[in-house]
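can u do me a favor
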């Protein structure tokens, strides 16, 4: 069993034990594998305090051994896997797994402590991902993946690793699948589809320049300023441009089957909030409430330490106080409760009353009509005002089903 390393003798014994465990190929989840992870952490801690120069970077060590033995990338395939895996490892896009470390250690004689350098315990675990559960055909069909896929059975993992690798994270797919998340939905969401959609939104967000976002600086008045853009024909697209000036990136991406998603509030790997909207319902009132709801999460709940929020707004907030607050803040930002209570638009299904309140508040009439329909649970009235088919057409670069 691993113990605290207090001397050079303890250190040498721990390194030797690591080598033995690697050679033994302990299966993940066994006491031996757990001991290997703990020993790795103890050795790295001892090295950081006693050997300030450190040990070579594992990729540099592999390249050095290749040069020593005149090896090409093709020669590493037996130790790492396919040629694409070798390329990704050497470029830093794919982390070394335990099986790769074992093979490189025993096959090329690279010291285990070198290959383990800088590896987190989670990086060393064999991937628990069932790659065939990702909706790869749908992703290719939507143009998310440009690489030509000729054999889905054999290429799936490599193609998807390349897709997630665009985020620059060692194991983004594993991280997303394991992360905690706040999900508002009455139905179970397909976690693999949700992970793929999340990655797509963050990849698109990363392609845009953005200014730093200051947590806690924006509130309801800011959201009302955004809502005033709704009176313009191009309001939904202008909202994204406006938000980016304050460090909030808005990405429009249709939901994948099995996610039942209207929107999400995420924190990007490169810093700052990202709002993803699916425009599942192509209506003006739905767009603005969904945007305000996610903005409420950004201004009240989201930060780097918080789990992301995913929302199916067909269902109520149930017992989640954050969802209740997001609904309340979104409603108040669009139409103040005071103005709503004293306006005839709250009681009459009248287009004239709807237009009157909308003009007073400087918002699109669809927003007023949408609130009436929601509060009275009558979605057949004011149908000509809620703006059917008026949103998706503004985002022509998006591939709609």
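np, heres the sequence
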């Amino acid at each position: 069993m691993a113990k605290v390393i207090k001397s050079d003798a303890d250190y040498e014994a721990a390194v030797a034990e690591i080598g033995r465990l690697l050679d033994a190929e302990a299966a993940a989840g066994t006491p031996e594998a757990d001991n290997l992870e703990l020993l790795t952490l103890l050795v790295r801690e001892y090295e950081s305090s006693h050997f300030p120069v450190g040990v070579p970077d594992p990729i540099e060590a592999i390249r050095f051994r290749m040069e020593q033995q005149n090896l090409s990338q093709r020669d590493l395939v037996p130790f790492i896997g396919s040629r694409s895996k070798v390329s990704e490892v050497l470029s830093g896009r794919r982390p070394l797994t335990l099986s790769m470390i074992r093979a490189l250690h025993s096959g090329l004689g690279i010291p285990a402590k070198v290959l383990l350098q800088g590896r987190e315990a989670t990086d060393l675990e064999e991937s628990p991902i069932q790659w065939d559960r990702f909706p790869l055909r749908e992703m290719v069909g939507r143009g998310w993946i440009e690489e030509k896929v000729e054999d889905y059975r054999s290429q799936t993992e490599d193609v998807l690793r390349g897709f997630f690798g665009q985020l620059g994270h060692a194991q983004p797919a594993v991280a997303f699948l394991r992360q905690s998340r706040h999900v508002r939905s009455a139905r179970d969401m397909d976690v693999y589809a949700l992970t793929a959609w999340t990655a797509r939104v963050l990849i698109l967000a990363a392609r845009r320049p953005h200014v730093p976002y200051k947590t806690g600086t924006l509130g309801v008045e800011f959201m009302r300023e955004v809502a005033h853009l709704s009176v313009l024909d191009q309001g939904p697209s202008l909202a994204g441009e406006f938000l980016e000036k304050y460090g909030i990136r808005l990405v429009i991406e249709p939901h994948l089957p099995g996610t039942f998603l209207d929107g999400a509030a995420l924190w990007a790997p490169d810093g700052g909030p990202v709002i993803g909207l699916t425009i599942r319902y192509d209506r003006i009132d739905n767009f603005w409430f969904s945007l305000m709801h996610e903005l409420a999460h950004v201004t009240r709940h989201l930060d780097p330490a918080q789990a992301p929020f995913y929302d199916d707004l067909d269902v109520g907030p149930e017992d989640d106080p954050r969802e209740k607050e997001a609904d309340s803040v979104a409603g108040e930002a669009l139409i103040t409760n005071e103005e709503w209570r004293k306006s005839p638009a709250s009681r009459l299904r009248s287009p004239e009353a709807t237009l009157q309140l909308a003009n007073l508040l400087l918002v699109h009439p669809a927003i007023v009509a949408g609130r009436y329909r929601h509060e009275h649970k009558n979605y057949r009235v004011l149908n000509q005002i809620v703006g059917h088919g008026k949103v998706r057409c503004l985002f022509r670069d998006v591939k709609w089903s």
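The first strand starts at residue 182 and ends at 184. hope that helps!!
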